[in-house]
């Protein structure tokens, strides 16, 4: 199963409370922070909701295991 590398690139200041909560639900707290999330429909939906604030890359499990 692939994973998503999500990078928080733009501040959520000035955006709706729902978008701020979505950023927090993805595990993002600070700008330029990166998190790895499973590639599931739920996570994809959250990313779609805040796509203007984040950058998303698909990674394979092998790549993640090598960097750990």
Structural class: alpha+beta
Q: What global shape is seen?
A: globular
The overall strand count is 3
**Any idea what the radius of gyration is?**
12 Å
Number of helices: 3
The chain-level mean pLDDT equals 93
Please give the order of strands in the largest beta sheet.
Answer: 2-1-3
Terminal CA distance: 17 Å
Topology summary:
Layout: E1 3-8, H1 17-25, E2 34-38, H2 41-49, E3 54-59, H3 61-67
Verbal overview:
The protein is α+β, with helices and mostly antiparallel strands. It is 37% helix and 25% strand. The protein has helices at residues 17-25, 41-49, 61-67; strands spanning 3-8, 34-38, 54-59. It has a three-stranded antiparallel β-sheet with strand order 2-1-3. The radius of gyration is 12 Å and the shape is globular. 16% of the residues are buried. The model has no long low-confidence stretch (mean pLDDT 93).
Keywords:
single chain; 68 residues; alpha+beta; three-stranded antiparallel β-sheet; 3 helices; 3 strands
Question: In a few lines, what is going on in this structure?
Answer:
37% of the residues lie in helices and 25% in strands.
